[in-house]
Amino acid sequence: MKELKVLAVVIFFTLVTYWGVEPYAHSVMHKHIEEAKFNNFQYKDLKPVAKGNPANGKTAFAACASCHGLKSQGIKAPMDAVSAASAYGVNPPDLSNAGAVLDEKFIANFILSPTHTALVKKSGMPGGMASKQGAADIAAYLKSIAPKEVKPKEAFEFACGRCHAVHYDKWTQIGQTPKTKSDIKTGVDLAKLDFEKKVGQYQLKLAGYLGKLPPDLSIIVRARSEEYLKKFVENPQHILKGTAMPRVGISKEGYEKVYKYLEEVGDPSKPKREAVGPWVIGFFVIFTFLAFLWYKAQWKGLK
Amino acid sequence: MAHFDLNARPFSHQWLNDRLAVDTLKRVLSTEYWIPKNINFLWAMGMVLAATFGVLLISGIFLLMYYIPDTKLAFDSVNHTIMGEVGYGWLWRHMHGVAASVVFLIIYIHMFTGIYYGSYKRGRELIWLSGMLLFVSFSAEAFSGYMLPWGQMSYWAGMVITNLFSLGSLDLNGLVEWIRGDYVPGQAFLGRFFMLHVLLMPLIIMALIVLHFGTLRLPHVNNKDGEEFDFEAEAEKWKAGKRKESKVIPFNPVFLSKDTFVLGIYFIFYFYLVFYHFEFAMDPVNFDPANGLKTPPHIYPEWYFLWSYEILRPFSKNAGLIAFGFAQVIFFLLPFLDRSPNVAPANRRGLFSIWFWLLLIDMIVLSVMGKVPPMGIYTTIGTVAAWTFIILWIALPFITKAEKTVRGHK
Amino acid sequence: MSDRRDFFGKMLGAYAGLGALGALYAAKRTWDPLPSVKAGGFTTLDLSNMQENKLYVEKWRGKPILIIKVAKNSKPATAPNGNDKNAYDDKRLITVGGHKYMIVVGLCTHLGCIPDYFPEKNKFICPCHGGQFNAAGEVLKAPPPSPLVIPPFKITGTKVVLGEVGSEYKKLKEAGVVA
Q1: Which residues of C touch B77 (CB under 8 A)?
Q2: Using an 8 Å Cβ cutoff, are A33 and A239 in contact?
Q3: In a mutagenesis test of the C interface, which of B83, B86, B243 is the best target, namely the one with the most C β-carbons within 10 Å?
Q4: What is the ipTM, given to two decimal places?
Q5: Residue B118 lies in a domain
Q6: Which of A217, A214, A106 is nearest to A156 (CA)?
Q7: The CATH number of the domain where A168 resides is what?
């Protein structure tokens, strides 16, 4: 029993040290977050909008189509990504999946006043492109044509993928890195060089527009906590004042998709880790039990 | 010439005995290597450390197969190839990272056990000194290993720690550049720290482990009461079958059986950390790739370096460096600063007992203050704790000189 | 008493051995080729627009692949073993889009050097030990013990995917042309 007391002392000092250098120190380091500013992607600060009419929205979308594509409805974007970035700083997204990933109220507010809604100083998107009712109609239209279910990666591509690369998944700001082949004699891969040049041109424009190149998100799930990422995406300015990251107005379901994708890329061993863990620990529990029997047998009658 | 049994079958027991003295080896190294019986689980920490070093060595071998020591590729070779592509690469990395952190917890427990029971004097000075050399080598090994993933913490820790070698106002920038092989941590830096981590430091550590075991041989392992007795006489009692009366037990199997039990409990704890609680050892900041144009908002060393880092922080540049140097060497001097002849547990040694617990608490305070940002009240607490550390060590010879002889000890 | 004490030790040792086997399995998996390496084990050859009797070189799984669109008359100029039959009639050739092609791994079956092609002689000569092959990869002169190896392939239109097993490859296998 004396030994258990010694063990208790060791555990006590170990835990105090752990508590001090981990939870306590990190709570001091990281600014306290005002929970009230976050409401699980409800965007309560935005004004509610009138009920939109999808049919009217379809007509009104003509104005949007001068910059945005809508592939699912057969509307192609007027410019390729690099030219669009030259013109606007960033490539205006194809809106086929907008209704599936973004919050409807946010879309309408964004059409009316992009900078106020996205909480940024400037936006490539002009404001006042539609009346209040028109904005609601367009939002309703986008919602009506959106697929019921988008894949995690599609959600990411639409919401994040024009500014953030994920090179562990070969994703660049202008799309998936194509499979190319180098010339067998010289080793030159012109198609690859061409693509890289385009990515570079796009990134330069994007960095010029935002002030810096947004980070690659390949392992962002290991670099930032789940809680941090969620809050940052919901309201970037409250977490990192002055950041160029806009509030993208993602819905709760949309965010869950994005996070799922980021986790699959950034922590691919998680399922395996969680499957193997119990076996290894179970092995050592039995090991310890057998060792205990051995120890008891060896020490019997020694004291 | 020794006697050889010419009829012995090759590789039979007799044959091996004639050539390798396997029976003698087994006797000397295991079945008749005597350990005092009067011990507790803290005496198993040496085996726990040896096992953890084994874990580090084995997991390190597998990491080495896909790690690329190139500043452009290192980060992805660790975080993409090893963590995502290599079969069980994630397991080796988590085991390696967590063991590197946990090994210091055990080292500190091992050290404080030695201090508490006075296991560093009266013939055991070299055990302590070789142990301290191991501590320093492990620190160098841990630091060089921390550079390899080439994340933000790697880069900036490399920057800050190598800058210490400018030695304050001496401004030895040439020395700093020589250590780095560049103006900043770059390819040359990564290459040489890679070499240190996978070759030179492990060789030194392995040599020191052998030395550490060697220094134990003559003075023998200490016991819970610091009691001195005749090991040979006690061993004779054991061999005569007086298991109860003898004060010693053989390393194998008696001591080993308990060690293995402790080891089992330790591995449950360790693998729990590996699978479910690894963030403390694998700092999220280091999952951002190194960027020489942007310092992370908070930089701090791994937890086991925090106390000595904090001793550096509250002072001006030069004084801080001197204090830091003091913290690095002072533990080496323990056997000579403790002027008392008593080999006894601290709780029987009057003022020394207070000194021991104060030192432990002070180092924990220093560690916590080393991690929180240096501002306001934390700076004050840090400064007080740093001075307390220094004063404690200056006071040690006086406290121990005045110490009364503990009853039952000469 | 002593037996009982030892028994537990032995049991523990055996159990620890089980754990070591588990660790060995993980180690074996670590040593396996990476998924990206496995996924990269396919090469697509486009056979349209090839000239007859000209050697084309490609790469598949790091090895050179030699391709010749075999001309109607591909009789080797000389054949040391009297084996001078026309390569065009060889059953080792692969027919794609009405043309016959030799597609082989370009490593001599003797010791792995790359044989040189001499179009005017319609044959390969290995620079290392003088082994010779005709334009279908058959041995004309030792030391190579067997014809140049045909990699697994699958024909899709005028393209051939190396690394995949198609029906034509299976047929060659059934006929005993490839091992």
Answers
A1: none
A2: yes
A3: B86
A4: 0.93
A5: yes
A6: A217
A7: 1.10.760.10
As a whole number of angstroms, the longest Cα–Cα distance in chain A is 93
Query: Strands across the sheet with C123-125, in order?
Result: C116-118, C123-125, C132-134, C139-141
- Is residue B103 within 8 Å of residue B49, measured between CB atoms? yes
Contact A297 C4 (CB under 8 A): yes
Question: 3-class secondary structure for B212-225?
Answer: HHHHHHCCCCCCCC
Number of folded domains that form chain A: 1
The arithmetic mean of pLDDT across residues B64-93, rounded, is 95
Q: Look up the pTM and report it.
A: 0.91
Residue C162 lies in a domain: yes
pLDDT digits (tens, 9 = 90+) for C113-155: 888 888 887 888 888 888 888 887 888 778 888 888 888 888 8
- Neighbouring C-alpha atoms within 13 Å toward the C-beta of B236: 4
Residue B306 Cα, gap to closest chain A Cα (Å): 9
Q: Per residue in A88-105, is it b (16+ CB within 10 Å) or e — as a string?
A: bbbbbbbbbbbbbbbbbb
What confidence tens digit (pLDDT) does each residue in B153-184 have? Answer: 999 999 988 988 888 777 788 899 999 999 99
In chain A, which residues have their Cβ closer than 8 Å to the Cβ of B45? Answer: none
Among residues A43, A24, A16, the alpha carbon closest in space to that of A254 is found at A43
* Same domain as C132, residue C50: yes
10 Å CB burial of residue B37 (0-12, 13-18, 19+) is: buried
Token readout for B137 is 């080598």
pLDDT band at B410 (very low <50, low <70, confident <90, very high): very low
Query: Is residue C68 situated within a structural domain?
Result: yes
